[in-house]
Design goal:
- It is a single chain.
- With 262 residues, the chain is an alpha/beta fold.
- It has one domain: 3-Layer(aba) Sandwich (Rossmann fold).
- Helix content is 37%, strand content 23%.
- It has eight helices and eight strands, in the order βββαβααβαβαβαβαα.
- It has an eight-stranded mixed sheet with strand order 1-2-4-3-5-6-7-8, with helices on both faces.
- A hairpin with a 2-residue loop joins strand 1 and strand 2.
- The two termini are 15 Å apart.
- One of its GO terms (molecular function) is hydrolase activity.
- Its EC number is 3.1.-.-.
- It is an enzyme of class 3 (hydrolase).
- Keywords: Hydrolase.
- This is Dienelactone hydrolase family protein.
Length: 262
């Protein structure tokens, strides 16, 4: 069972809306910041947070599109990703800090992202004080994939689809770099999965233009249940290893089998 609510986190630019989901009970629990894909705050994003809460984590999913038009936010976020700094990183760091300050949090915090959010999770793995990062078919510019970028990174679990044209070979490249710099990792590319295979979006949340562009850019972008189930099991096992301590409440394996975010 989980308890969810809409909260606001104070940032340098005002109040940032956050969907917050937590396990039942008193805690303390580790925290996870959930970074949305290009569609923003959707039913799927809330279900991802609920899935993590059901597995024993404080899950906070910020609406990084709040306060401006989506197109304006996208331009800003792409610019931030290229520069590796800016408002997007500051907002996510503010959510991490808020989680850490809660009395029901252990102080260990992970980050998980999907598609565009997966790219930010990858960039946040180094120098942003996260204890683990889950990168799900996140794209980044080619200059990111160097040993210098990841030599100070936290542990990374990454999941990709072999049918994803936008990420062809990305998993193998990341695997080689993390091995070379000695960062603990679990990287897997699923043969039958395409882009966004972990996201089971409601059709009403997907503008027609986005659906067309997604298929053009990444190939098959539909939810693939067998790959998603395995990826979730790996993510929970990885987070349990790096975010949990012996005194934590909750069961990290909870929902691993049935923990579909749908």
């Amino acid at each position: 069972m989980t308890r969810s609510t809409d909260l606001a986190v104070e940032t340098a630019r005002g109040r940032l809306p956050v969907y917050f989901s937590r396990p039942e009970g008193e805690g303390p629990w580790p925290g996870v910041v959930v970074v949305h894909d290009i569609l923003g705050m959707t039913h799927d994003l809330r279900r991802q947070a609920d899935w993590l809460a059901g597995a024993g984590y404080l899950a906070a999913a910020p609406d990084l599109y709040s306060g401006e038009r989506r197109s304006t936010c996208l331009i800003r976020m792409f610019r931030d990703a290229r520069a590796r700094r800016g408002r997007t990183f500051e907002d996510i760091d503010a959510v991490r800090t808020t989680l850490m300050s809660r009395p029901d949090c252990t102080g260990r915090i992970g980050v998980i992202g999907f598609c565009m959010g997966g790219g930010f999770a990858l960039l946040l793995a180094a120098d942003h004080r996260f204890d683990a990062a889950s990168v799900n078919y996140g794209t980044a510019s080619s200059d990111v994939y160097t040993e210098g970028t990841f030599e100070r990174a936290c542990p990374i679990v990454g999941s990709y689809g072999a049918q994803d044209r936008a990420n062809r070979g990305t998993g193998d490249r990341l695997e080689r770099i993390l091995t070379a710099v000695g960062v603990d990792h679990d990287i897997r590319t699923y043969p039958e999965a395409g882009h966004a295979f972990l996201n089971d979006h409601d059709p009403a949340d997907v503008p027609r233009l986005f659906a067309v562009l997604g298929r053009f850019a990444g190939g098959d972008d539909t939810f693939h249940e067998p790959s998603a189930r395995d990826a979730r099991e790996r993510i929970l096992a990885f987070f349990a290893r790096h975010l949990r301590t012996s005194g934590d409440n909750g069961d990290a394996s909870a929902g691993a089998e049935s923990g579909s975010a749908s």
